Amino acid sequence: MKTLGTVVSNENGPNTLEFDFAINDNSVRKGQFVQINADSTIIARVDEIYKTNRYFSRVESVIEYERGGNPINEAFPVDRWEYLVANCSILGTFNEGKIDRLTFPPSPGSKVVEIDEKILEKFLGFDQKGLWLGKIFHHNLEARINLTRLLQKHVAILAMSGAGKSHLVSVIIEELLDRENSLGKPAIIVLDPHGEYKKFSQDSFYRKYTKVFDKESIKIGVSTLKASNFGDFLELSNAQKRELNKVIQNMKKENYDLDDLIAEIDASDIKSPTKENLSGALSMLKAFDLFDKYTRPAIDFLAKPGQLSILDLSDFIELKERQMIASYFSRKLFFERRNNHIPPFLLVIEEAHQFCPEGKKEEALSRSIIETIAREGRKFHASLMLVSQRPIRLSTTVLSQCNTHIVLRVTNPYDIEHIAKSSEGMSGDLIKSLPGLKTGEAIVVGEAVNFPIMLKVRERKSRKSEIEKTFEEAMIEFSLKNKLSKEDLESF
Ligand SMILES: Nc1ncnc2c1ncn2[C@@H]1O[C@H](COP(=O)(O)OP(=O)(O)OP(=O)(O)O)[C@@H](O)[C@H]1O
Ligand SMILES: [Mg+2]
Fold it and tell me: CB within 8 A of 225, min separation 6: which ones?
């Protein structure tokens, strides 16, 4: 194991929380994990690196010398007195696979060595059979996150636009689809406002696992709705809901559509104006072209082990329509999961701030069910993955239930502040590094890892979607396509 330096004693320590060491190897980097082999193995992280030089430590001498026209670095061998010092925070001890808190400080003079990557892997809580997300910073170690630790509770993926959220989600989806059957596979359902996950259905390998549902194939079965569900979609008074409930109870047909229901209301003996208002309110839903006799896709078709189901919402223009779909299908999924009719699932919600925003309930009719799943889903293995570029607009109830936060680049100060408040385990140092992250670089904090980690998300195996192509790639592809079709035409 390579020695990196020697623990020094100064006013800060060493104590049980931190120590400084004099660096004798220039490979040491901020954020790197290191180890001290004492009675037990001490694991620490380099939080900062300082340079010191005693020739320059006293302001008055520096000024006096330089004033005399006698630069210090010409008069003295200053280079030889420049030292590097690393400030480290102690994360714990590691003994025979067990992590403990350090209760007695390391001694000055202890050697600090490069960390054994086998130890680091265990120390961070990685799992050989876990989800391979990428490589951690500064070490030759792949981040393989244990599936249960990631999905047992919920995950938030937060970052500004273009930082690599959807790429990361695709990597996670690949990992879930690639799992051996014997390890178990969840059902994956993606609420996809931009239709960017369709690419899985065009990929030669992943297409066999993928089902895409779009405007043509998504319908809400009117006969599956209770009066309270209509109450989510429309503003109904209590009296209206009561009457609607009676009408629904008395429907003779087993499967009926909006027209059937409205006709039944019109023929009923509900008093005016409740009757007209109720009938009028339900007629408004007809404008959405979303309601039908039967629900499509059926829930057990939507949620199958090892299947990626994409609800492509890109052709639903109105936000309200998208929210109705989100609300209806999340509710159904959660309900059927509670009854164990469908497998444990992961529900990915892209642009989550559109579906569960902070603010008034009326602003997003899908919010309450998403909050319910966030609060109770864990007990039923119903997991949420919320993806958002505007964390500050996301429901704080939901955000606080996400026990793992994966944060990529964020530069907006309000969003940074919000993340600092809502991500437990996100230290001040990590927060400060958020604006400087490059595309695809992420910080993982919370339940999924024993300690916060920084990683470079791996390349994807599946195809890129159209919207992810660079401007240049799109231009070249367009010209190629045009050239080919011209040649076709000529040869014809
Ligand atoms: N880890 C990575 N390795 C290589 N390329 C990446 C990585 N992460 C992201 N990219 C590329 O960066 C671009 C933006 O990524 P992505 O679409 O995932 O961003 P986003 O955070 O989802 O943005 P938006 O909020 O606009 O949806 C894409 O072209 C993607 O292929
Ligand atoms: Mg995206």
Answer: 248
Hey, whose CA ends up nearest to atom 6 of ligand 1? 440
Mutate to test the pocket of ligand 1, among 157, 166, 393 (most ligand atoms within 8 A of CB): 166
Question: What mean pLDDT is predicted for residues 307-316?
Answer: 97
Atom number, ligand 1, closest to the C-alpha of residue 464: 31
Q: Report if residue 470 sits inside a domain.
A: no
User: Does 490 score more than 80 pLDDT?
Assistant: no
Q: Is residue 80 predicted with pLDDT exceeding 90?
A: no
State the first-to-last Cα distance of the chain, in angstroms, to the nearest integer: 69
Ligand number with the minimum distance to the CA of 159: 1
Cα 266 to Cα 238, 350, 475: the distances in Å are 19, 40, 57
Whole-number Å distance, alpha carbon 304 to ligand 1 midpoint, is: 28
On whether the CB atoms of residues 153 and 404 are closer than 8 A, the answer is yes
Q: Is residue 355 over pLDDT 70?
A: yes
Q: Is 253 within a domain?
A: yes
What is the domain-level CATH number for residue 336?
Answer: 3.40.50.300
Ligand 1 pocket residues where CB is under 6 Å: 159, 161-167, 389, 439-440, 457, 459, 464, 468
Q: Which residue is associated with the tokens 């990361």?
A: 168
How many CB atoms lie under 10 A from the CB of residue 297? 17
Residues 231 and 210 in one domain: no
Q: What is the pLDDT of residues 256-291, one digit of tens each?
A: 999 999 999 999 999 989 999 999 999 999 989 899
Q: What burial letters (b/e) apply to 115-148, b meaning 16+ CB within 10 Å?
A: bbeeebbbbbbbeeebbbbbebbbbebbbbbbbe
Which residues span the domain enclosing 238? 222-288
Do 329 and 399 share a structural domain?
A: yes
pLDDT band with cut points at 50, 70 and 90 for residue 85: very high
- Do both 361 and 445 map to the same domain? yes
Q: Which ligand is nearest to the CA of 391?
A: 1
Report the pLDDT value the prediction gives residue 476, as an integer from 0 to 100: 86
The answer on 330 and 417 residing in a single domain is: yes
Q: Closest Cα to atom 12, ligand 1: which residue?
A: 164
Mutational test site, ligand 1, from 354, 439, 472, max ligand atoms within 8 Å of CB: 439
Quote the number of domains for the chain. Answer: 3
Q: Same domain, yes or no, for 68 and 14?
A: yes
Q: Residue 464: its pLDDT value, please?
A: 67
Q: Which residue has the higher pLDDT, 256 or 466?
A: 256
Cα separation, 126 vs 134, in Å, equals 12
List pLDDT tens digits, range 162-216. Answer: 999 999 999 999 999 999 999 999 999 999 999 999 999 999 999 999 999 999 9
In a domain, 483, yes or no: no
Looking at the domain assignment, is residue 227 inside a domain? Answer: yes
Same domain, 188 and 307: yes
